[in-house]
Amino acid sequence: MALIVLAVVLIVGPWDDKKAGPDSGPTTQPTGTQPTSESTTKAGQSKNPKLHEGNRISSAAISFPRRNPPWSDRLRLVQQLHNSSGQYVLLQENFDGRNDWYADIFVGALGTDSGFNGDPKATAQSLSIKLRSSMYGDIPVTFKNVSNGAVKRSDKSGWYFQQTVTANSPKLTARVLTLTVAVFDLGDGTAVAYISDIPTNRPDLRTAESQAYKGINVG
Description:
With 219 residues, this protein is mainly β.
């Protein structure tokens, strides 16, 4: 997997407030990124580990039900999340001579260095923008804001932002993805996040992500 350094992005349209969470997720991605150092404050520690037991993908105080093949487990490290874990599907290998293209679902904790100040909406919006470079690097992509709104899982309140990602490459068979970011407030000054990017032309992967999103446990 190549290490990506710089993103080329075009931001289109304003955010539209919605009241309900998205039913399906996004589909693009694959670029290696480096983990950050741990925050001095332990972020996202679970106070109810039983929520994350069983056949689930978990990190800190957030988890989702493990998806069946073709999904595979892996760590998905982006600098904004600590100790993130998730699953992926390889969509296209070495499509431009340097990069692979993936569908991803992953979760992790937001540390005190994330800028979280108790407002999951502001944090989710900021994280959505930061991920554009973390996840797509120097692959030319265009972003369009789709929706955002309040979401709740396991009695923990949060906010999601969703945008479409269009790769400007004719070599890709899945050029358009949906990127979903949801941030949940743990009520102790820290937060956790769910991130997915799924191709719009793969209903099987969209269904799998939708079930993962609906099955999130937080706490």
